[in-house]
Design a protein that fits this description.
alpha/beta
Amino acid sequence: MPIWQKTEEELGRMNVPPPYWAFAWAGGQALARYLIDHPAVVHARAVLDLGAGSGLTAIAAAKAGASRVLASDIDPYAVAAIALNADANGVSLDTTSADLLGAPFDGFDTILVGDLFYERALADRVLAFLTYARDGGAVVLAGDPRRSYFPKEKFQQLAEYSVPVTRDLEDMEIKRTAVWQLAR
């Protein structure tokens, strides 16, 4: 809340979208850890980080040797944060604020999604996009702590981590979070 309030104060306006990009969400942390532990998953592959937030998983993919990384988030503040974080971590990646969920699948080898299943309508759109991408040949990996609208029955668990989270955002300080692959 303090970051959100400060953003509104600095911009001099109300109704600024919540700064989801300002936090390392549990799913993104687990997915980033998985990529660092298993770099072959993205090495020499074109990677899309959908709903990238701060760019944590996109940066992990770049550090793990992805040939190309596109970090996508519809919030322009997130896109700015991603660029700053990528620079601070010494990696090169592309960004977009376009809503890719309504766009045709663009030939990425791997799609990464961290914590995007928190709202029913969004979860339905994300799952439709991911299913289309998987059917087009992409490997789809999701980091999710079993949020309310995460379709667990459609995914296969690959790993599980205990990750530190912000008590202001979550119901605990350490959250058990899994990395999942969209099953065929």
